[in-house]
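DM from R.C. (forwarded with permission)

"hey, sorry to bug you on a friday — could you get me a structure for this? deadline for the figure draft is monday and I only need the backbone to look sensible"
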Amino acid sequence: MAEIESRLKQENSDLKHEISVFKTADEVLKSRLERSEVENRHLKSKVDSIEKEIDILKSAASLTSFDHPENDTKVDKDFRRVAPYHPPAPQSAFKARLTHKLTNVGSEQIIPFDLAEINIGNQYNPTTGVFTCDIPGLYVFHLTLTIYSDKYVELRLYKNGQSMHYVYVGNKGYLGSESTTALIQLDQGDTVLIKSDQYHSTGDLIYPGYSYFSGFLLYPRIQN
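My reply, with the result:
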């Protein structure tokens, strides 16, 4: 009888131990489950954030809403706060070449460089030789002049009828060539052109093909 009672006590003790082990394992599993749920919520938050960034980048790539701000979505507005749209900078540039020789040039005669090889913005008129400013800002003008041998000439760059810059070429026994560059601030409607001065030779004077007039917008003026 005592032996049976002892065995029952031992079995009861073993059973209690197993129950305790199961309880501990259950608590461990519950703790792991709670951590997994927290990690899942964190990962979901990251996925949502990445998806939002992708939507913003897609909206930026299309740029369709910039032309119609009234149609902006929340994503468009978020993108505007992060990276506002800047329209392309205005452009103006030309390069014109003289294709025929100039003979018996008069005083204060406009020199039209008649072949516009580059004319971005169409502000240079190769027929009249006049550049008319459409975009206010700082401009760079360059003149390369080649003349016949044993000749001399002085050309001037005019802004709105006022002499701003000049170049003189004189040579003996061979073709002569000189270049000059000018920086000029222009407003909309200002005109720039090249004229002869009173100091020049007669007869065949300016050599064709190697005489150029060019200009480009360096910095547009910021309008407030």
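R.C.: lifesaver. Helices lie at 2-62, 74-82.
me: no worries. The chain is about 30% helix and 35% strand.
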